[in-house]
Amino acid sequence: MENKRFTISVFTENTIGLLHRVTTVFTRRKINIESLTVSETETQGVSRFTIVVNGAEDKVLQVSKQIEKQVEVLKCFFYEDEQVVYQELALYKMPTKAFARSEAVEDIIRESNARVLAIEPEFIVIEKTGREHETQALFEKLKPFGILSFVRSGRVAIAKPMKRLQTHLEELESISLFE
Amino acid sequence: METLVQEVMTKKKEAHVSQKLNVTGAEALILSLLAEGVDSIFGYPGGAIMPVYDALYDYQEQLKHYLVRHEQGAIHAAQGYARVQGRAGVALATSGPGATNLITGIADAMIDSTPVVCITGQVFRHLLGSDAFQEVDVISVSLPITKWNFQVTKAEEIPAAIAKAFYIAQSGRPGPVLIDITKNAQNERFDFEYQKCTKIRSYFPRRKVDANAIDAAVELINSAKKPFMLVGQGVTLSKAEEELKAFAEKSGIPVASTLLGLSAFSTKHPLYVGYLGMHGNYGPNIKTNECDVLIAVGMRFDDRVTGDLKSYAKQAKVIHVEIDPAEIDKNVKTTVAVVADAKEALVALTEKIEKKSYPEWLQEFADADRLEYEKVISKDFAPNTEKIKMAEVIKMLSDKTQGTSIIVTDVGQHQMTTTRYYQFTEKDSNITSGGAGTMGFCLPAAIGAKVGRPDRQVVAIIGDGGFQMTMQELGVIMQYGIAVKVIILNNNFLGMVRQWQQMFFDNRYSSVDMHNPDFIKLAEAFGIKAQKVEKREDLGSALDTMLDSPEAYFLEICVEKETNVFPMVPAGAGVGGIRLE
After folding, report:
1. From A16, which residue of chain B is nearest by alpha-carbon distance?
2. Considering the domain A86-152 in this protein, what is its CATH number?
3. Which residues of A touch B341 (CB under 8 A)?
4. How many CB pairs under 8 A join A and B?
5. Which residues in A have their CB inside 8 Å of a CB on B?
6. For B390-400, how does the pLDDT look when each residue is reduced to its tens digit (9 = 90+)?
7. In angstroms, rounded to a whole number, what is the distance separating the alpha carbons of residues B118 and B101?
8. Which residues, numbered 560 to 579 in chain B, qualify as contacts with chain A under a Cβ-Cβ cut-off of 8 Å?
9. B203, A179: Cβ pair inside 8 Å?
10. Contact yes or no for B195/B159 (Cβ under 8 A)
């Protein structure tokens, strides 16, 4: 089975150590995590892990079952890129003098729909949200002007299917026995 | 202010809600264990768990503590206890090395789905992360090998943590959990109240039987020409032995067992066709690749059962009855998955299947058995060597006990020989380290089994290698008068490794030769009656003496040095490639 990029969304209780539990599922199987982002969801106390991996679908299915098996994991889904709306964020730290010398940087920022977040005497911080190839393209454009530092976040993604987590959980509950 | 309902604690049935005001965390732990119906625990004291040991002092009548000689002994004993009792065993250890000494057993319990609750002491909360004396991050260390673990840093967290621990360990697919309790939490006082855990919102341990899946399975079963059933420990864990028998008898389908499934189905039953896997019987292995419908119940298609997956049961439609959804399609692709408890699924299936029989198909198994008997078994039993053979011992033991004893084994040739030749006829009788293959498991596990079932004969069968890994636990037998019967099958070799070296490493016997101590003197040093058997003619009476002994008994049986266990599916080969010699 060919490798594809998958976005795995894991809904969990917000407990200490769970990050470790989730990541060991990957490390044990020698699967590299491309990116990982954790945040609280619209439901208080429920966290969402967004994990991007490259892998064969059957392997990703197995991994997702192993994640869901963890006691404090509510539910785990995985998606191909077409099934999610996703975004990343990148920050670029540039020398202030790069702006003083040329209008080219300003043009690049405008064309790229990037924005300036902070201006300091020595450096300026530019922010760009987008997909990886977009933030990478801006990186390439800014490179000649001297990037002092660059950071890109992990992917955050919202699934296109309309079924809500709560509905999934209610369905699971209706087919489950607890004692 | 010592008040209130303490009486409730001793009456297990009423213990669903128990209360006591102003108790220490340590006492709360003991009260929580009592509320869970725990009567025996296995452990070893040390600095960070001392408040708990102090609290135990006041509850010696209700909660019997067995002082092991090494924490590995505690966890294996808890496993043995859990396996015969069908509920969680409890191991107690201090922080740091005490906790890390539990790790092997926790890993063993994880892969063999054994419910165990481990409680470890931890340094004071304010010292966490400071590299304090005997501080080990046991939560991280045990994380990949526990079903759940949790660090308690406040006394008030203890009742809920213990309630969750027992619920998680024992529900769904069972497994080990670990609760790490900082010393301050053991010392702090609070008003104790205990409520059993019956549900966790993120945890779905068991599915209702899906009627559609049952219908699909029934259709396959009813139209099968050569159906074949494989049963695993899931049957034992769900206490579904009777339901399995009812299903087998109505369906007429031949039943084979995995290593851990042994004793779930009587080996004397006419539908029992043998034991699966690398050293299993010939028939069940080759017939796996000839059946048309394969029904797997409560087993996980371990590689020691399947051999090479690329040539495993490719012709068959596979029905997998399994409680853990993550096992479905993990190793073998299923046609129909029934994600459910084995007992409930078997009841639902039995109701709908047609009554059938497959005399010709069963005859094929009988023919395979005859071949195996000629090529292997008759030779294993033949008294044609100078020294006794392992198989002779097991055959005699099986006959003398009529297959009714609890048999505990370690790992290696003696284990495969025992599980091949002991004719189990009673449920909950086979205790061995399956998935992990933990040498040193047997002696402490047998102690735990005897504590759990003092009414039954418990026989530990161990190789000379594995025995020396945990032989210090003879001290527990001595101290508490535990009437375990111990058989050492001594070939002065690490026999299974030697067999592999002979077969696959060109007879290069590297580090398998064992120079052993005088085992009899050793047993006697622990006050255990002991006898050494070297001659075939002495074997019968020695076994009788051992079995009749009301107290512990130790038998060293000197066996042939270089026998091999056959049949064998060589590692990497398919089940069809099973070798008889």
Report:
1. B150
2. 3.30.70.1150
3. 177
4. 64
5. 12-13, 16-17, 20-21, 24, 28, 58, 61-62, 65-66, 68-69, 71-74, 169, 172-173, 175-179
6. 999 999 999 99
7. 12
8. none
9. no
10. yes
Nearest CB neighbour to A71, from listed B199, B203, B208: B203
Contact B493, B515 (CB under 8 A): no
Q: What global pTM score does this model have?
A: 0.95
Interchain CB contact of B13 with A (< 8 Å):
no
- CB contacts of B140 in chain A (<8 Å) are 17, 20
Q: Which of A46, A42, A43, A23 is nearest to A33 (CA)?
A: A23
B532 three-class SS: strand
pLDDT band (50, 70, 90) for residue B11: very low
Catalytic residue (choose from B20, B147, B164, B183)? B183
User: What are the start-end ranges of the H helices in B239-302?
Assistant: 241-251, 282-288
Q: Length of chain A, please?
A: 179
In the CATH scheme, what is the code of domain B6-195? Answer: 3.40.50.970
The domain B211-365 is placed in CATH, from the list 3.10.450.50, 3.30.300.30, 2.10.109.10, 3.40.50.1220, at: 3.40.50.1220
Number of DSSP helices (H) and strands (E) in chain B, helices first: 25, 21
At the second CATH level, the architecture of A3-85 is: 2-Layer Sandwich (3.30)
The active-site residue out of B6, B14, B133, B504 is B133
What is the rounded distance in angstroms from the CA atom of residue B115 to the CA atom of residue B118?
10
- The top-level CATH class assigned to B386-558 is alpha beta
pLDDT digits over B60-112, tens only?
999 999 999 999 999 999 999 999 999 999 999 999 999 999 999 999 999 99
